[in-house]
Automatic annotation (TrEMBL):
<dbReference type="GO" id="GO:0016787">
    <property type="term" value="F:hydrolase activity"/>
</dbReference>
<dbReference type="InterPro" id="IPR050300">
    <property type="entry name" value="GDXG_lipolytic_enzyme"/>
</dbReference>
<keyword id="KW-0378">Hydrolase</keyword>
<dbReference type="Pfam" id="PF07859">
    <property type="entry name" value="Abhydrolase_3"/>
</dbReference>
<feature type="domain" description="Alpha/beta hydrolase fold-3">
    <location>
        <begin position="73"/>
        <end position="278"/>
    </location>
</feature>
<dbReference type="InterPro" id="IPR029058">
    <property type="entry name" value="AB_hydrolase_fold"/>
</dbReference>
<protein>
    <submittedName>
        <fullName>Alpha/beta hydrolase</fullName>
    </submittedName>
</protein>
<dbReference type="InterPro" id="IPR013094">
    <property type="entry name" value="AB_hydrolase_3"/>
</dbReference>
């Protein structure tokens, strides 16, 4: 059963008016609506010793930290590669930094359709390179302990970047994928079962097509994580999925594929909640539990 908190949370964000029909106008409305609902959905900003906007090799980012020489968790926000921002995951990143002891570096990657594939991926990789080269001197962090993560579209970006880091012989220590977008074909049965709870097949197909306009490119490993020939050697992984999420089954399929490749995986399915629940710290109890699970996983896996 869908938790009543989820239904209540659905009314906190403005929806595009019926007379708004031009796609770019709708997108701009959705971007602003997500920003405007941040306080109501996510709650007040938890104070931390360090919260600072930085230029991470030319990519905007925000550092959250409570101590020096902390391990680093690079985070990519969700929003269908087209909306969302550092601000929309600010409260989540603060909570993870506070409870994990890690420094969290949230990435303001370029958005589609203004910047299509591979712009967002390139930005994420630029930030990883910056952390490795300059993190100790400029951010006061420990880049030798480096994890990556993200939610939804950000989860897709994170795991593609993690696979590319593995291939470049600079593997990451952990990855955290919160209801990640994995399958450009949107073929999972969960689209048919739960598509009416905030994310349906049509909107997800539109997101993939906006991010990667070339149909052939959509099924390459740098876009579709399951297209990679070999997933062995990927970092230990936490995957969080949601019962009433159209992306539920593809997240589970990816967890199974990683396990089959010998990757240590923790896959947790949160019941009674839908896509996007994890950032709604102010209104959904499970969001706080999930965020704390991420923090615990990082604290344990990055060895304090």
């Amino acid at each position: 059963m869908l938790h009543p908190q989820v239904a209540a949370a659905a009314g906190l964000r403005a929806r595009p008016p019926a007379d708004l029909t031009e796609p770019l106008e709708i997108l701009h409305f959705m971007r602003q609506a997500m920003e405007d609902s941040n306080d109501a959905e996510c709650g007040p900003a938890l104070p931390l010793p360090v919260v600072v906007d930085v230029d991470a090799g030319g990519v905007p980012a925000r550092l959250y930290a409570s101590r020096v020489d902390a391990p680093v968790f690079v985070y990519a926000h969700g929003g269908g590669w087209s909306y969302g921002s550092i601000e929309t995951v600010d409260r989540v990143c603060r909570r993870i930094a506070d409870r994990s002891g890690c420094a969290v570096l949230s990435v303001g990657y370029r958005l589609a359709p203004e910047h299509v594939f591979p712009a967002a991926l390139e930005d994420l990789e630029t930030v990883l390179s910056y952390v490795r080269k300059s993190g100790a001197a400029e951010l006061g962090v420990d880049p030798s302990r480096l994890a990556i993560g993200g939610d939804s579209a950000g989860g897709q970006l994170a795991t593609v970047a993690a696979r590319r880091q593995r291939d470049a012989a600079t593997p990451l220590d952990l990855q955290v994928l919160i209801y990640p977008a994995i399958d450009p074909m949107t073929a999972s049965e969960s689209f048919d079962e739960v598509g009416s709870y905030g994310l349906d097949r049509a909107s997800m197909k539109r997101a993939w097509e906006t991010y990667v306009p070339d149909p052939m490119t959509r099924f390459t490993p740098d876009v579709a994580p399951l297209a990679a020939e070999d997933l062995a050697g990927m970092p230990p992984t936490l995957i969080i999925t949601a019962e009433y999420d159209a992306l539920r089954d593809e997240g589970a399929d990816y967890a199974d594929a990683l396990i089959a490749a010998g990757v240590p995986v923790v896959h947790t399915r949160y019941m009674g909640v839908n896509h996007g629940f994890a950032r709604k710290l102010a209104v959904v109890d499970a969001a706080r539990v999930a965020t704390d699970q991420v923090a615990s996983y990082l604290r344990t896996g990055l060895t304090f």
